[in-house]
Hints:
The chain has helices at about 5-20, 35-50, 55-60, 65-80, 80-95, 100-125, 135-155, 160-180, 190-205, 210-220, 225-235, 250-265, and strands at about 185, 190. The chain has about 270 residues and is mainly alpha-helical. Helix 2 (about 35-50) crosses helix 5 and helix 2 (about 35-50) packs parallel to helix 12.
Amino acid sequence: MNEIEMAKVRKAEQAAQDARNGGGTGRRKGLSVFRLKVVGAVFMALSVASATLVPLIFGAPTADNMTALTVAVVCEIASWCAVPIYAWLLFDGWRHTRNRWRYGSRLFVAACLAGLPYDRIMTGHWFDAHTHNPLWGLVFAYIVLVAVDWIGARYAQAGALRWALTVLVIVAGVLWNLLLRIGVSQQVMYSGVITLAFVMVFYFLHRHENTMMFTAGLLGAVSCITPGIGVAFLHYRNDRLGYAHPWTKWVFYALYPAMLLLGALLV
């Protein structure tokens, strides 16, 4: 690559970064990455509140206490709207990050930090190998995403082999989520599996916006309905970062573990 070509590449990269930070000619209205993360955080907070604050305020959610049971169930079901939002943020972060290994390691650390307080809230013990927090669903989805993309690049000319390996990796990701019970909620929402499904939809269809959103909406509708509402938020995204400060992104990595820790101290 000569100097002129290198200059063009650097200019294109800078233009893309400027567009994500608020410049360029893309849509100015809508939800930036920052705003999507805020929306997702609110839904995550509802999930934590359903198992911690609701019992403190309304009492134990049992059949004899329908008020507490109703509020807890509504909060938990509403929290499932976050699944497609975080699946999109994972995919979007993957395709824009400068260091994919570092990006994956941050997800891994966040999932580890969320583990103990999540187990405490869900099982009453600080460690329970029978359940794992939803952030592990993002970790496994990221591993599958990286593997599928590598297979697509490595075996681009070997159609049948490429798709056979791709299906094998995706099935392995589904089994990991099922066997480890990643983000299982109310025995009906398998958020780890659904997160992986959304990430694959975004990966394979991101060049076709309307088809991608329709497919994601359909997937959300058949996944206990409320994830479909989360897809509606994505429809209004503008793909800009929207951060007021560079360090803001680090807050969101710590936010869910911090929510869980606070909830664990309340139960």
